[in-house]
Each structure stands twice: as C-alpha cells, then as structure tokens.
Amino acid sequence: MGTFSKVHRFHKEGEAPNVNNVAAFGQPVSSLYTSSKVFTLHHHIDITDDTGTVLYESNSKMISLHDKTDITDSSGAFVAHISRKILTLHERHYVTMADGLMFELSNEIFHIVRDITNIEGLG
C-alpha cells in the first residue's frame, strides 16, 4: 500500500489523479467532480468531467425522511435513485439504477482515519 498523503488525496479539474490511487489501481478512464449550490431549497449537485461539462445532476428533496436523491444525465434522463436507511449504526444507502439493478452502499464503522465503503449486490 502506498503512503498516505493529504496533498495527493483528491484532485481538482485539470490536476493529475491521486498518485497513490494510480499506483494501486491504474490511471482512471475519466474523473468526475461535484459542485453544489450554496443557497437552494433542495440539495442540488452538478457532476462534471475534466472540462467542467455537466454530465449528471443530483437532486434531493428539501424535507425527506429517507434522504431520497435522483440522479439524471445532462439531458434529464433518469439514471438512478438513491435512498438512505434511517435507523443504522453506519451510513447505508440503497441504489436503484434505471435498468432495474439494485445494490447497497454502506460505510464500515470504527474506521477513524479512512472510510471503507462496501458495495453489496453488484456480484
């Protein structure tokens, strides 16, 4: 495992990918970036490529018990629906893709330094 560096942990548009991730997993085919609006009644995130072109959008309702989020592509076509499980010791999300594929994302607890996310249901 490579050395941990806060300097190389994330990269912005136009910057090279994390050197530790490239060493461990290879050069990514593409990188995606997120930006959110500060003042909005609902949670909106734009997901862009290296050039700043919006590829996807994430929209959540202002008030929602299950923290429901819909992902659409730049043309507005549905990509995925994400909902959060409320009563859990660690963060758990259920994802339903446009083609009907369903899986879970969950963060393991008691990992102080690094988050470990499990993806269950993708085979």
The geometry reads as globular
Major pleated sheet: 8 strands, antiparallel
Mean pLDDT: 76
Quaternary state reads: single chain
Unreliable spans: none
Order of helices and strands, N to C?
HEEEEEEEE
Integer-rounded radius of gyration: 16 Å
Question: What is the strand content?
Answer: 35-45%
From the helix content, strand content and strand pairing, which structural class follows?
mainly beta
Residues in helix, %: under 10%
Strand order of the largest sheet: 1-2-3-4-5-6-7-8
Alpha carbon gap, first and last residue: 25 Å
**Please, how many domains?**
2
Keywords:
single chain, 123 residues, mainly beta, 8-stranded antiparallel beta sheet, 1 helix, 6% helix, globular
Briefly characterize the structure.
This protein is mainly β and 123 residues long.
Q: What is the secondary structure topology, with strand pairs?
A:
Elements: H1 19-25, E1 33-36, E2 43-48, E3 54-60, E4 69-73, E5 78-84, E6 92-97, E7 102-107, E8 117-120
Antiparallel strand pairs: 1-2, 2-3, 3-4, 4-5, 5-6, 6-7, 7-8
